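To whoever is covering the structure queue this week,

Two jobs came back overnight. Logging them here so there's a record in the thread.

Job A:
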Amino acid sequence: MREFKGVEGWIRRHFVIYKVIRKSAPFLCTFISLEEGFDFLASIKPSSGSFSVLDIGANDGTSIRMIQQHIPKARIVAFDPVTRPSFDLSGIDFRDYALGSKPGGFHIY
């Protein structure tokens, strides 16, 4: 049997705590950046009022909250066929379907 160490081991041993923290992530993201990958949003300055952001794989809504925090006037179109964020999605164009019928990739311009 494989032994898990480090962060993955801690999460597996304390999964209930991890689930509570993960569930509260969208709320926490209103105040702080929990994921370094979203820091680049602060450098985006929309050149017009008709700025749209696509969130493909919205999951629990963490990215929606981060986009709202850094680019408050952006129109957000979020896609997720499996999970719908549990917070109020007023002003968010949420689509509960995937962008493809099979695994793969394509370019969106």
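Job B:
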Amino acid sequence: MFDFNTLMKLAMKNIQYVLLGLLLTTLSCNDFLEENPRSQLTREQFYNNEPDFRVALTSTYRPLQLMYNNDIGMLTSVDTDEATVGNFPGGEGDDFQDHVYGPGSNTLNNWWVRNYNGINQANAIITQADQVNLPSDDQELVDRYATEAKFLRALYYFNLVLAFGDVPLNLEPTTSLNGLLLNRTDQATVYVQIEQDLQDAEAALPVSYENDEIGRVTSGAASAILAKVYLHQNKFQEARDKAQEVINSGEYGLFEDYLDVLSVAAKNGIEHIFSVQYARGL
């Protein structure tokens, strides 16, 4: 005889067994399902040794290659009497030439974003270098990388101040969206930080490099940029004195042929205090 109540009790008991089995399976799979991110590196996975810092520092130079190309020409030449758009009319070139560019400019947006990308990368290196404990030789290199990062941070902030005046000053790596909510800082305060970073760089960086290290920041480059920073603040005596230090160092001079300034064969020559490095075919 068909007993509906008995059938329902059996069904409910089976459902309970199934649910219990699913629960146990889920609990036992937690460890299996938890994976370390493999598509990108986190701070916990990186900055553990000297090669990590070297890779990070190299990437901190990267925004310069993007900015000191078309963007720098648009911002410092096309909108002056030094250059025109020539055979490449249209778009933002005409806007800059006619002084009608505004907040919607891609060039200005690129200048803002790329400088702050460089700053954020520099901040990460500087912060992490203080938190690692490496063998003495490696630690010495990492400390130098952090000082190079200070120079780059100063240069990126200098670019921003010249373009925008008051800008947000941040000396910590951005690790969350809340870190993006920053107010503008008075440019005088930003200049104080720029000067400090450059002074640290000129005191600690080498005078020159050899072979494939050529093109990295030197103490002379820090002094030269510092002279320019003083000049833009109307600190004329400080600018003169710092520029005289660069001249008296004997590390730099003028090419006999002015055209050598732009010659590939004379790249990183005696007249090039600090140059952004490019390579063909990459």
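Note for Job B: The mean pLDDT is 85.

Please reply-all if you pick these up so we don't duplicate work.
Q.
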